[in-house]
């Protein structure tokens, strides 16, 4: 940039003003020179983007004293990249050209838009379900498209794992981790347990309705309340049956296996008899009449003839049916029900046979509301009024039916496919037996169920199919009437089938619970892992019996069945998910023997299971998911940690890799910037964290968001200190857990602490997930320490963070910082905004106030105005800027008038330099003696023939061995000469005059400290711009003194340095 210093310009502005103008631009000056060209004075300034935190021109440094304020001398070396607030505030309000800011997001997006390709849009259309053959076919469609997918996933998973007990739980926990395995395993256990209750209730219903109806204990006095009596009978007999079955299971699983063969034979005979009866109905359908009044179905109970009148010889008499709708013995129609009078009584066959064509009437669904009367669509009927007291004579619906309800009731009949996997521990070769058996079981049940739907729809009248309790057929079993040779084949077969299914559930459920308990992922279930000496789960069986008793006390199959469906569907869902995840991740250990499979099949099954859960009963689905979610969180926080090489860990690694690669695209936008911390901790001799409140402050600042890396350095050799490093890592991790810091720990071993810190700053993080802020403790006691490495390491770290363009935070007096259990109910967080540093000072209090410790503190922002600044306008501009940032804070502009340097400042500067000189001489003498001893020890070594006082000698931590020194005449004379020079050194120290630049810096520190203490002495926390270290290393010790003076009298101070970029923006 060439700035023309024409006469009009030069009369008002100096070349230094030109340099100041350039500092207003988002660039840094790297050189400036005055040239003479054709009589015109020009100032040529070379500028580059701000990629260096320091000026590199000695000329510019020399001219800086002309325009830098005396009150900001402490910050003068960096004012070109960290300008005064007063010089930038008006531009901050407009927020158009900020010194350190990256391009604003509109420009950034417009620039990126030209580089980005137009994304491809994936379009997909909705899928629709088509009407099936019947509503039963539609329900069967869900079964045939959901359940048959399971064996493929089962086959894949089971052909990989070497199975022990646990079945589905073992598969899911080893594939998706203990949290998912435990949650789904317990839900599946509850489902299997409730299934045993459902099967027992089914057996008792058959027993009381068809086998021994006279065994009922409770009898209904009111016909409208007959259901309650039936449920009470089922509760009593169901509890007895459950007790007997639990005793059989307790005696041993071998007896269950022997009974299973008997039960299987009964089931096969029953199925064959249904097919035989359906074939026989083609030519000889069974006589199975039902009585219809108009198109309404009558209960065939209390009358024997389906007619209004009967012929007794030549006399027409009133039938029993007439007496039900009219006054008994009265032939007058005025005392009869209107509907009964206007409609005819007809008798139709309930099972017209396979050749009747009844299937056309049963083609479509007819869902009814609770209390509606079953009606046949093809019969004539006169719509007449009917009194409410006569509705008990008709067959009505006991519950409101719907497709989703029927799916929930039907689905448990398809859940037996997991019975084999539940008993995987008892099988000789589970990897072979379970998949083959499961596929054969599904194939068999699919054929049987599908053919049964067709046969029932082709042979049986629709009103009979909808008659749940058989009221229209005198409580007879319809399927039994259809079967051949006798209805008792179906009754006995159904009874033993339900008993056998209940025994299988009571056998598998305790073993599933025992497997969960033995894995010790849920502590309070540990007792159920014990059993008899032969491994039988005694305590698990007892708990299973108690839970099954709860299901029996419910007593209603229609209420128990949807619960089972949810738990079983959830189990199927996660079996499919486990298989799909393992296949997609392609982990080395995933080597299935079954090859005829694709991961999309599992995703299809998983999606259909989820859809079926909500289709059948959305509220039961939410309850089931809530139960599984609570178990998951409990295992996550209270359960034992298990490393089973599960797929979720592999999925996390893949997701982390993908996210890291995405972050590599570029640095985060200002809107997304948040401090990603590298916390440098110091350990004591016992490898304990010396200042735990550093971690407390980090947890309060981060609140679990973003990246936190806790690092420390152990001095020594890596080979010798590896164990010490591991112990230090464990100690830091324990402290992080106590202070609730969610992050990572990294400890390095280095020969020098300074080098170790540099390694941490350079190498911590991975890819785009790297730290952008360093949190470092204050070197307490640096004045009293004879070892200069204490403060030299601190200053070197400050320089390294600046060079790496990282932000820096130094909490001073960190021991006084609040713990996570404290609460500030009032008070202020004061921000002293001296120079513009990227907005860190305004962002940090906002983040702290998100934590409960600082939430009720108010935020105050102070800035400094010089003599030539308009403090009133500065306050307005700052308030406007904070309003645009949506930050609530009080604003105050403090005027610092130019004043003469006080005697106190001069004397304090003098004492500082005298102390530095004395310590330098003391260290010089000590280093000379150590060097002499080392030369005597290593007589033939030339390694240490360097300077008398070097950094290398400073860093030697290993104490030198004692050596026997031999005194010569030359050495003795040199010692006398050094002693004779001591008074001369003292006189030189007393006559020392302080450097003027140090005096100005001390003046800045003293004046700022006076103002800060005056305004913020009672603040909960003071945030302050941290001055940069001097470019000349000779002033390092003076720099520490300046920082001490600047922060004197303040309880809690946070020194902050920006990282060279904007970190806050007005855009949301």
TrEMBL record:
Question: What GO CC terms are in its UniProt record?
Answer: plasma membrane; synapse
Query: Where in this protein does the record put region Disordered?
Result: 101-127
Pfam families (alphabetical): AA_permease, SLC12
The UniProt entry lists the main location of this chain as membrane
Assigned keywords, A-Z? Cell membrane, Chloride, Glycoprotein, Ion transport, Membrane, Phosphoprotein, Potassium, Potassium transport, Symport, Transmembrane, Transmembrane helix, Transport
Name the chemical reaction catalysed here: K(+)(in) + chloride(in) = K(+)(out) + chloride(out)
Q: Which InterPro entries match?
A: AA-permease/SLC12A_dom (IPR004841), KCL_cotranspt (IPR000076), SLC12_C (IPR018491), SLC12A_fam (IPR004842)
One Gene Ontology term from the biological process aspect of the record: cell volume homeostasis
Query: Is the keyword Transport assigned to this protein?
Result: yes
Q: Where's the SLC12A transporter C-terminal domain?
A: 692-810, 824-1068
Q: How does it sit in the membrane?
A: Multi-pass membrane protein
Annotated Amino acid permease/ SLC12A domain ranges read: 164-279, 384-678
GO: which molecular function terms?
A: potassium:chloride symporter activity
| Keyword Transport tagged | yes
- Membrane spanning residue stretches: 152-172, 184-204, 234-253, 260-279, 399-419, 439-465, 485-503, 539-557, 563-585, 597-621
Where found? Answer: Cell membrane
Which family is this protein grouped under?
Answer: Belongs to the SLC12A transporter family. K/Cl co-transporter subfamily.
Q: Which NCBIfam families match?
A: 2a30
- This protein is called what? Solute carrier family 12 member 4
Organism (species): Oryzias sinensis (Chinese medaka)
Per the UniProt record, the lineage of the source organism begins with: Eukaryota, Metazoa, Chordata, Craniata, Vertebrata
């Amino acid at each position: 940039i060439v700035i023309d210093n024409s006469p009009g310009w030069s009369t008002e502005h100096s070349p230094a003003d030109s340099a100041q103008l350039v500092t207003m631009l988002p660039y840094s000056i790297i050189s400036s020179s005055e040239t003479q060209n054709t009589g015109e004075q020009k100032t040529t300034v070379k500028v580059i983007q701000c990629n260096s935190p320091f000026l590199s021109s000695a000329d510019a440094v020399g001219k800086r004293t002309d325009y830098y304020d005396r009150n900001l001398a402490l910050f003068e070396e960096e004012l070109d990249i960290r300008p005064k607030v007063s010089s930038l505030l008006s531009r901050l309000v407009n927020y158009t050209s900020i010194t350190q800011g990256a391009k604003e997001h509109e420009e950034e997006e417009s620039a990126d838009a030209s580089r980005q390709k137009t994304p491809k849009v994936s379009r997909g259309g909705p899928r629709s379900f088509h009407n099936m053959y019947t509503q039963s076919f539609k329900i069967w469609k869900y079964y045939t498209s959901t359940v048959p997918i399971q064996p493929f996933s089962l086959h894949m998973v089971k052909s990989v794992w070497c199975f022990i007990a646990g079945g589905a739980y073992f598969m899911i926990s080893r594939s998706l981790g203990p949290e998912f395995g435990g949650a789904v395993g317990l839900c599946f256990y509850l489902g299997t347990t409730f299934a045993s209750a459902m099967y027992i209730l089914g057996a008792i219903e058959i027993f009381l309705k068809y086998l021994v109806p006279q065994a009922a204990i409770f009898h209904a006095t009111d016909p409208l309340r007959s259901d309650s009596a039936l449920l009470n009978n089922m509760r009593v007999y169901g509890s007895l049956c459950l007790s007997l079955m639990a005793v059989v299971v307790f005696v041993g699983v071998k007896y269950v296996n022997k009974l299973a063969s008997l039960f299987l034979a009964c089931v096969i005979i029953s199925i064959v008899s249904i097919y035989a009866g359906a074939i026989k109905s083609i030519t000889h359908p069974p006589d199975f009449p039902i009585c219809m009044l108009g198109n309404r179905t009558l209960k065939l109970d209390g009358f024997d003839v389906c007619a209004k009148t009967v012929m007794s010889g030549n006399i027409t008499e009133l039938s029993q049916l007439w007496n039900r709708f009219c006054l008994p013995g009265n032939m007058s129609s005025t005392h009869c029900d209107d509907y009964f009078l206007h409609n005819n009584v007809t008798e139709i066959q309930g099972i017209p046979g396979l050749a009747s064509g009844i299937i056309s009437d049963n083609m479509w669904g007819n869902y009814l509301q609770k209390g509606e009367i079953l009606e046949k669509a093809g019969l004539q009927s006169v719509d007449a009024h009917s009194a409410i007291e006569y509705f008990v004579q008709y067959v009505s619906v006991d519950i409101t039916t719907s497709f989703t309800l029927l799916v929930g009731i039907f689905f448990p009949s398809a859940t037996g496919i997991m019975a084999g996997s539940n008993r995987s521990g008892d099988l000789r070769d589970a990897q072979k037996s379970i998949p083959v058996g499961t596929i054969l079981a599904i194939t068999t049940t699919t054929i049987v169920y599908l053919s049964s739907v067709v046969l029932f729809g082709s042979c049986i009248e629709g009103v009979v199919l909808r008659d749940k309790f058989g009221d229209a057929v005198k409580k007879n079993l319809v399927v039994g009437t259809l079967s051949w040779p006798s209805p008792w084949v179906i009754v006995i077969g159904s009874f033993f089938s339900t008993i056998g299914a209940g025994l299988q559930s009571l056998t598998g459920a305790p073993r599933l619970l025992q497997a969960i308990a033995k894995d010790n992922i849920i502590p309070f279930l540990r007792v159920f892992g014990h059993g008899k000496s032969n491994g039988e789960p005694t305590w698990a069986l007892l708990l299973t019996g108690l839970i099954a008793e709860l299901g029996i006390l419910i007593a209603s199959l229609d209420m128990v069945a949807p619960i089972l469906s949810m738990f079983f569907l959830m189990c199927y869902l996660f079996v499919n998910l486990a298989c799909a995840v393992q296949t997609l991740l392609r982990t080395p250990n995933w080597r299935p023997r079954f090859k005829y499979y694709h991961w999309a099949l599992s995703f299809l099954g998983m999606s259909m299971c989820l859809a079926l859960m909500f289709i059948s009963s959305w509220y039961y689905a939410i309850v089931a998911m809530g139960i599984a979610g609570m178990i998951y969180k409990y295992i996550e926080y209270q359960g034992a940690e298990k490393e089973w090489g599960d797929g979720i860990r592999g999925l996390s690694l893949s997701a982390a890799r993908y996210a890291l690669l995405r972050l590599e695209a570029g640095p985060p936008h200002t809107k997304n910037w948040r401090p990603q911390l590298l916390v440098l901790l110091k350990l004591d001799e016992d490898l304990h964290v010396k200042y735990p409140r550093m971690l407390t402050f980090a947890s309060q600042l981060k609140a679990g968001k973003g990246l936190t890396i806790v690092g420390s350095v152990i001095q020594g050799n890596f080979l010798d200190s590896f164990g010490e490093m591991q112990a230090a890592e464990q100690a830091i991790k324990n402290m992080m857990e106590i202070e609730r810091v969610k992050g990572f720990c990294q400890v390095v071993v280095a020969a020098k602490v300074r080098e170790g810190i540099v390694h941490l700053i350079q190498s911590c993080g991975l890819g785009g997930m790297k730290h952008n802020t360093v949190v470092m403790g204050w070197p307490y006691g640096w004045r009293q320490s004879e070892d200069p490495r204490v403060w030299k390491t601190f200053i070197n770290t400050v320089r390294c963070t600046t060079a790496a363009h990282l932000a820096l935070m130094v909490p001073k007096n960190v021991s006084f910082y609040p713990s996570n259990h404290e609460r500030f109910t009032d008070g202020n967080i004061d921000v002293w905004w001296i120079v513009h540093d990227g907005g860190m000072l305004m962002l940090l209090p906002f983040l702290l106030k998100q934590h409960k410790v600082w939430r009720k503190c108010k935020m105050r922002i102070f800035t400094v105005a010089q003599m030539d600044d308009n403090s009133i306008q500065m306050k307005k501009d700052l308030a406007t800027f904070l309003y645009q940032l949506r930050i609530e804070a009080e604003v105050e502009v403090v005027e610092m008038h130019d004043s003469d340097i006080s005697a106190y400042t001069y004397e304090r500067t003098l004492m500082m330099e005298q102390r530095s000189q004395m310590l330098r001489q003391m260290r010089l003498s000590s280093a000379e003696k150590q060097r002499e001893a080392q030369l005597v020890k290593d007589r033939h070594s030339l390694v240490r023939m360097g300077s008398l006082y070097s950094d290398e000698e400073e860093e030697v931590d290993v104490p030198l061995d004692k050596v026997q020194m031999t005194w010569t005449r030359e050495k003795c004379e040199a010692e006398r000469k050094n002693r004779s020079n001591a008074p001369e050194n003292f006189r030189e120290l007393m006559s020392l005059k302080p450097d003027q630049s140090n005096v100005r810096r001390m003046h800045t520190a003293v004046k700022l400290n006076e103002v800060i203490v005056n305004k913020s002495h009672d603040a909960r926390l003071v945030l302050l711009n941290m001055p940069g270290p001097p470019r000349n290393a000779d002033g390092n010790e003076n720099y520490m003194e300046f920082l001490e003076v600047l922060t004197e009298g303040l309880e809690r101070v946070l020194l902050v340095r920006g990282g060279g970029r904007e970190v806050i923006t007005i855009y949301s």
